[in-house]
Design brief:
heterodimer; A: 168 residues; alpha/beta; 5-stranded mixed sheet; two-stranded parallel sheet; 4 helices; B: 178 residues; Rossmann fold; 2 domains; two-stranded parallel ribbon; 7 helices
């Protein structure tokens, strides 16, 4: 990762931790309040594509970890070298109870379906999202089904196994 | 019955199993040797292969497609997942037993079944048709109230009217729900 950008990030924002996973892959761990500013800064620094927005349920710590995976589109294909390919994982932890985070749609427009998906499957609320309606699910679930405290086996027992076989 | 040599398979993709169907129906394995050709719409088909896991959302489309097929029609569950859930046995959104919701005439087990298994299944279906044992469409008519009850247990209210006439007790229950 670009050394100057690294220093700039660490000097500008409080509590930024940078871990180099691989030559071209870097994890940046930030507090949830500074996610929008850091995202904007990274976008301006060349990481111009949000390729995925993901969520991890750390039930033991009582936290959700939201992961923004950013990559860079090459400006000029002729000068491309594999080292130019650059992945950044921006991670932030939020409390599990009343989980809420500011929406990133104003920075990366394609965050819209990802945020809807995380809202539906983990129950994380995104402030400023225009429509947090269900994306895939048609059934109603008491606990969002991707949370670790969703008991899939009990749910299967109560829902699908409770339906009887058709007698001939 | 003569139509056993001209099975028209509904080209309906449910799960990962559909990846086996293009090689089965095209030059490499050539299902037309067995009289099986794909048709684009359920209204022209008489063989319905449920290829792979069935999510709740897909099941609704399966029921609607199945009810539109003309009689006699045959359903074959393809792969482990429609049989008992397979690797999705504890999944929150796949139904486990397909035969609770529509009648099934035969199963092709495996994950994935190879094209050869499809042809074994087809030739076995011929035997069942000859013996009159591939009677899923008759069972559907006979036990329609039970099938409809199971479908409603999963979906709540179904968005379409009953295919067959329901017994009186069932009819009242359906009307009072609406």
């Amino acid at each position: 990762m670009n050394e100057t950008l690294k220093k700039e990030l660490q000097s500008t924002f409080n509590g930024v931790e940078i871990v180099d996973i691989h030559e071209t892959r870097t994890a940046i761990i930030v507090p949830s309040v500074s996610v929008p500013v850091v995202l904007r800064k990274l976008k301006e620094s060349g990481l111009n594509r949000l390729s995925l927005l993901s969520c991890v349920d750390w039930i033991g710590d009582g936290k959700f970890e939201i992961v923004y995976i950013l990559t860079s589109y090459m400006q000029n294909d002729d000068e491309y070298t594999p080292n130019d390919e650059w992945h950044v994982f921006l991670k932030t932890k939020i409390p599990r109870d009343h989980a809420s985070l500011k929406s990133a749609i104003d920075i990366f427009e394609n965050a819209e379906p990802y945020e809807r998906e995380i809202h539906e499957l983990f129950g994380v609320h995104f402030d400023g999202h225009p429509r947090l309606t269900p994306l895939f699910l048609t059934q109603k679930y008491e606990v969002p089904p991707f949370r670790k405290d969703f008991d899939t086996r009990q749910y299967v027992k109560d829902t699908y196994d409770a339906i009887p076989m058709v007698e001939d | 019955m003569a139509h056993k040599y001209s099975l028209h398979a509904v080209y309906f993709c449910t799960g990962c199993g559909i990846i086996e169907i293009p090689p089965v129906i095209t030059a490499r394995w050539d299902a037309e040797r067995f009289g099986v050709i794909p048709v684009p719409t359920p209204r022209q088909g008489n063989l319905f292969m449920i290829t792979g896991y069935v999510s709740v959302k897909t099941l609704e489309a399966i029921i609607r497609s199945y009810e539109q097929m003309p009689d006699p029609k045959y359903t074959v569950g393809f792969g482990s997942c429609p049989i008992n859930g397979g690797m999705y046995w504890d999944s929150y959104n796949t139904i486990k037993h397909l035969d609770k919701y529509i009648p099934v005439d035969g199963w092709i087990a495996g994950c994935m079944p190879r094209p050869e298994a499809v042809f074994i299944g087809v030739t076995h279906l011929w035997t069942l048709i000859d013996k009159g044992k591939a009677d899923g469409y008759l069972r559907y008519k006979k036990n329609y109230a039970s099938y409809r009850k199971n479908q409603e247990a999963l979906f709540g209210e179904l968005g379409w009217p009953p295919l067959y006439e329901l017994p009186n007790w069932k009819k009242e229950e359906t009307i009072s729900k609406r």
